[in-house]
């Protein structure tokens, strides 16, 4: 959101930077799903096969021994009593032999019933973990069903960002719901393997009172009465799911190639965002020209009462932060929405294996954003780099290098601008044609996987025929701005 050479506005989000601003170690499918001993054929969910790993930044979340292939969530929300009732059906592969099934889940809920492969099982919640009795051999499959009810509660966000908000399912004063949950927080509304390396397929059905709407990630299916249904046929990391309930207005549109788009907003509260939501086909066209086809079968934007924004898959979740002035809003919201759409390629289709590599999401989305705003505002690449180097130097001094983020400083500004400037160095060396071909192949050839620093370096070197190992590692690890 640069205006002129050195003027910048606020970038928002659990995915948008809050700084004032002018091969193969990635996952692959380890096995093919097959019928279990209980007779269930799991091949229908093999698209959700992942290689989970323990997250080094937040080891208290996630279970690398379990690979959730599919979440079937049937939810009912009662605004008057603020009660969420749910039935979660999880199709699970054991990535390693386990003596019990451990998942992340909020102790705010009462467990009503638990079954494993149709048989009753004991289930208890302590701290942030649901533990269910039942052993599985490596690569064995199981169907876990958890029925529960309660009032959602959030968890603190581990960050010092000025737009930090509690993570997870938030209940509004009027009985609505909304959520943003990066790096964890999905487990505030359903039992989840709440880590980025375990992507899964989803079916979500939400029943609400007459006159209310329920919006979730995925592609909308035909509703049944007041039950709203959504399906994600491309795998989704838990932090990229979304849910909102409220009295919403709805508008539909077509993106490039006829991609169905849906915009959800609250009359009065979100009206000034509408002109930008309606620019979604233009954003997607601009991004497709540089990074290849939009990676999903639907898209859209959901407005919520937040100071932030999030690249939730197929349905971006956006708030309306205070940009300080109407002029800053017009340039800032435009840039932020482009940023979130860029994440559909970088972060959603290709997801980091662990939170140390958040720069891999935010560097690409931030660089795309600045390419867009530089073009929009007629800022030269040289002028932008001169400005960005000053920002980079201050961020490294204050927050450290982007490749070594601190657990208590999640998604702070160093993982945005610093890797964006790194990508700019590669861009300068290989030129437009080679750079955008590389970016397109990264997003398209690694679609529906998780990746990390090592796989990115290997890909860049192979694709360009040059050795960028030192450049990339230096930009990610140096305490000062590289020359």
From TrEMBL:
It holds the Pfam family Peptidase_M1_N. GO terms for biological process: proteolysis. Its cofactor is Zn(2+). One of its GO terms (molecular function) is metallopeptidase activity. The keyword Hydrolase applies. The keyword Flavoprotein does not apply. It catalyses: Release of an N-terminal amino acid, Xaa-|-Yaa- from a peptide, amide or arylamide. Xaa is preferably Ala, but may be most amino acids including Pro (slow action). When a terminal hydrophobic residue is followed by a prolyl residue, the two may be released as an intact Xaa-Pro dipeptide. Keywords: Hydrolase, Metal-binding, Metalloprotease, Protease, Zinc. Residues 70-240 form the Aminopeptidase N-like N-terminal domain. Residues 279-475 form the Peptidase M1 membrane alanine aminopeptidase domain. Its EC number is 3.4.11.2. Residues 22-37 have a biased composition (Low complexity). Residues 18-37 are annotated as: Disordered. Belongs to the peptidase M1 family. This is Aminopeptidase N. It comes from Dactylosporangium sucinum.
